[in-house]
Design brief:
single chain; four-stranded mixed beta sheet; two-stranded antiparallel sheet; 14 helices; 6 strands
Length: about 350
Amino acid sequence: MKTPIPLSGAPGSPYTRKMLAVLRYRRIPYRFLPPSGPALKGLPQPKVSLLPTFYLPDETGELHAVTDSTPIIRRLEREHEGRSLIPADPALAFLDELIEDYADEWLTKAMFHYRWSYEADIAKAAALLPCWRGFCIPDDELAARGRMVAERQIGRLRYVGSNPGTGPVIEASYRRFLELFEAHLRDRPYLMGERPGASDFAAFGQLTQLAEFDPTPAALTLQVAPRVAAWVGLMEDQSGLEPGAQDWLDLAAPPATLKPLLAEIGRTYVPLMLANARAVTAGAEEVQAVVDGQAWRQQPFPYQAKCLKWLRESHAALNGEARARVDGLLAGTGCEALFDAGA
């Protein structure tokens, strides 16, 4: 058995939950370290403090702290055989990557928006999030930490673009996603078919908060999409699933629910990713976009410009046949604009 992978994180972090579920499904041994305490002593620090933090060796064997879930998933694919999250069909693998990025970079806006825009959600997060960094402290100190967390995170809403003008856009998009995913789950247990892909775990990570932790979106999720709410609980540990090569979606006969989901991605995620990339390239101080017919303004996010660059590289790397199949599925959804040379 390989040495367990050490990582630190917290239950309130959607990316922590994403990666813990990935490790369980792939049956990769790990050691989960609380985000504070003696277990982290002597371990390297990440360049930016994000959760989860994995402690992985480089080519010389020196440990490094790494935090980006998508590249970590690909590294685990290279280093651990079996139970892959990446479909063998390159066209399907690309769609899986696109939906994963949508979940990581757009659904997270809904998570952050709901958590820090509604009083009940703010109160719950302020009470519990500090506890996961240590609860053996006096009540007044714990309460002060909660206020500090809430003030800091509410101030960061501008980074995800949540404000009184964009809030209705975010909430309408989340409701549509629930309806689309609920429809998909009537016929398929995962986004990628009869077995989960990286996109399933990315969606799961955000939904651990939206469907289970934060009161306002959790009530909405149960009302609109009970299958989705149940799916989140089951996705926590998929170690007992025995996937087969035949269990991936067959793009020769794609489910009727796939194109509407891609159209939702094209409706919201795509225009913002393109506008953000333009703003980052131009060195602009503000992203200005139209998302779902509404004006959208937020601070530029350089990381998301990198995400778009990586997606474009993956699209360009497809062979002609696979790219033709991908482009045929994306046609008319709005997602094709991501790969328009003039966009």
